[in-house]
Every structure is written in C-alpha cells, then in structure tokens.
Write a structure and sequence with these properties.
Elements lengths: L1 H19 L6 E13 L7 E2 L3 E13 L5 E12 L2 E16 L2 E9 L22 H4 L8 E13 L3 E15 L14 E15 L5 E14 L2 E3 L2 E10 L3 E12 L2 E13 L4 E12 L8 E14 L2 E11 L16 E12 L1
Parallel strand pairs: 1-2
Antiparallel strand pairs: 1-3, 1-18, 3-4, 4-5, 5-6, 6-7, 7-8, 8-9, 9-10, 10-11, 10-12, 12-13, 13-14, 14-15, 15-16, 16-17, 17-18
Length: about 350
C-alpha cells in the first residue's frame, strides 16, 4: 500500500510538468461517492445486518497531451468497502493518435468489454449506486483494466451509421468469487489471465441514442493443476436520451469446467429535471448448476435526486435470490438463501 501511495505522490508531482508542456487542454477529474447499506442478514455490496456506513470511493484521473498526437492518462483510486481499505492504480497508459480511425495504446488500460467499463468509476453516469453484479461483479467475466497493447478507432459507415472498435492483447486480472475455483486464483484472489486476445465493436445507428455491440476475448490461466483457456463473449444494447436510459447486456463465460450465463436489463426515467426513478433485473446462472450457490437473481428499484449533473443522491432497494455474490453474516457466519438490501448514498464527479 505504501508503494501505491508513493506512486500516487509521484504522479501528482509530475502532473504540473506534463500540463505545462501540454498542447491540448489538460484535464483533472475526480469521481467519488459514499453509501450506507443495511440488509436482513447476509452481507452484500455496501450492506450488512447492522448497517454499514464505512463505504467510500474516490478516484483521481489525470490526462495530458504533450504533443498533438500523444495522450497520457492515469487514474488512481482509493476505496473503503464495509471498512476494508484498498488502493490501486486503475490504469496508466500512453496513446498515439494516427487518425480518428487508428489509435494505438500501451500500458494499463480500460478493459474494452461491454458498456460500463468505459465509465467504471463515474457514478453520475448510471442510475444505481453500484453496477449490475451479474456482468460487472466478481463473476470472472470482466476486468476493470488490462495490461498490454491495443488499437482502437472510430469510423463513419455511410451517412447515418458509425462504428467504434477495439482490439487488444495482454493480461487481465479478473474478479472471481467462486471459492471452488481457488486452484486458479493468484495470491490477490483474482484470476490472472495471460496471453489474452480480445476485441469489441459498437455500432451507432440512425436512431439518435441507439447503439449495439459485441465483445469477446480468450486467454490462458496457469493453474496448479495445469493450464485452462477461459473465454468470454458478450452483447450489448443501449438507448439514451436526455430523460430516458435503457441498457441491457448478456455475457457467457467458460473457465475450465465452470462458467456462467449472465445478463441484466436496466431502465431509468427522469420525470423532472431533478427526480429520476430506475429499475433493474440482474441475473447469473452457473452452467450445470441449479443450486442457490450457483444463482444470483436480483430485482432493484431506485429513486434519485439530482442537484446537478455532477452530484446526485440515490436511494435503492434490492431483493436477491441466491447466494452467488452474497457473503455470510459476520457475527453468526450464517448464509441465508435470499437477501434484502436498502442502500442510500451520494455520488459526484467533476
């Protein structure tokens, strides 16, 4: 942890020098939030039976363009999750722009898979405090970032269509909560996916705000009992207007003898400039497993009050059937078959 804070301090000290030489507009962004969660037993997301107040997140993003074609970007995050502290460099990379259709990146970068990986830490760009766990939780499908090299670009396809694409190779650190698969985990509790090759394509349609796309990757895990070759694929559909947002994603992943199907549908409607209501259905089913341990079905409703587009207060209720992501109650060690969670929090970005 001290090493990470030292790297963070170096980044802060180096930032003014980078910005002083920047040809473009330098940028500093901060994202964060606080949440209170209470459940009727199990621990899940920000919630415990007693009620957890110690849930905080803060991310600092720095970007600069020393020359016109070169962009440097880094992000540091510090989190407290039910009292457990964690710090990390989310990503730090360099990008060289040959044209809008061809950009080359190297370093630790956002994982180009699905909708929310581009805005993982920006809570003011989603209707619920937490991301849908079926796809973005510890399911072994997505990483927040990958280390390696990638190319990306944007191309017009005729007069009314457009495509954004990403192709990458490197290493993924996948969050994974299936304790039966400890044989594959690294010391940090994640799945280290080496020699990964993947990509994503997203298409903008003639309908304003409507887009769809697909993502996929394949890699190698060096396990204690031999190598496995996990693979994952996903599809996405999104419709956004000033007042209405509709998002859905479906994923399928295979890791050794295990894997799961997952997906969610999320809708939000802002019926006044300040007030917004939201709903989400979120589910995971492990392949060849019909037990509660292999299932996560979550129904959520929420109400948000927006003071501005940079600050929002959120209240949500969640009912979870299954124990795939829930943890036992800390005091008794008991794990219930279902969980009810009430969350209240605030998120900001600037």
């Amino acid at each position: 942890m001290n090493r990470r804070f030292s790297m963070f301090a170096i980044l802060l000290l180096a930032a003014p020098a980078l910005f002083a030489q920047s040809n473009g507009a330098p940028a500093i962004h901060v994202f964060g939030g606080w949440a209170y969660g209470r459940t009727d037993g199990n621990e899940y997301l920000a919630g415990t039976r007693q009620g957890a107040l110690d849930n905080l997140t803060l991310a600092l993003n720095l970007a600069a363009t020393p020359v016109e074609q070169l962009r440097l970007e880094a992000q540091f995050a510090a989190d407290i999750d039910r009292g457990v502290r964690k710090t990390a460099f989310d990503y730090a990379f360099a990008e060289w722009r040959f044209s809008d259709a061809l950009r080359v990146r190297a370093g630790k970068m956002k994982h180009p898979f699905g909708i929310y990986t581009e805005i993982y830490d920006v809570g003011t760009l989603r209707p619920f405090y937490s991301l849908p766990q079926s796809v973005y939780g510890p399911s072994g499908t997505l990483a927040e970032a990958y280390s390696g090299i990638g190319i990306s670009g944007f191309r017009k396809l005729g007069t009314r269509w457009a495509m954004t694409y990403d192709v990458y190779a490197g290493k993924l650190d996948l969050k994974f909560a299936d304790f039966d698969q400890d044989v594959f985990k690294a010391d940090d509790g994640e799945l280290d996916l080496e020699n990964t090759i993947g990509g994503r394509a997203v298409f903008e349609t003639p309908v304003d705000g409507l887009s769809f796309g697909a993502s996929a990757y394949r890699g190698t895990i060096n396990g204690r009992e031999g190598n496995v070759h996990p693979r994952a694929a996903g599809a996405q559909l999104e419709y956004l207007t000033d007042r209405l947002s509709l998002r859905t994603e479906w994923t399928d992943n295979v890791t050794g003898a295990s894997g799961d199907h997952a997906g969610y549908f999320e809708a939000a409607w802002r019926f006044t400039p300040q007030w917004q209501v939201a709903g989400r259905f979120d589910g995971v089913q492990e392949k060849n497993d019909r037990t509660l341990d292999g299932r996560h079905n979550e129904a959520s409703v929420g109400a948000n009050y927006w003071f501005s587009r940079h600050f929002v207060v959120k209240l949500s209720g969640h009912h979870i059937d299954g124990t795939h992501f829930a943890q036992p109650e800390a005091v008794t060690g008991r794990l219930k078959n279902d969980t009810n969670l009430l969350m209240f929090g605030a998120q900001f970005s600037f």
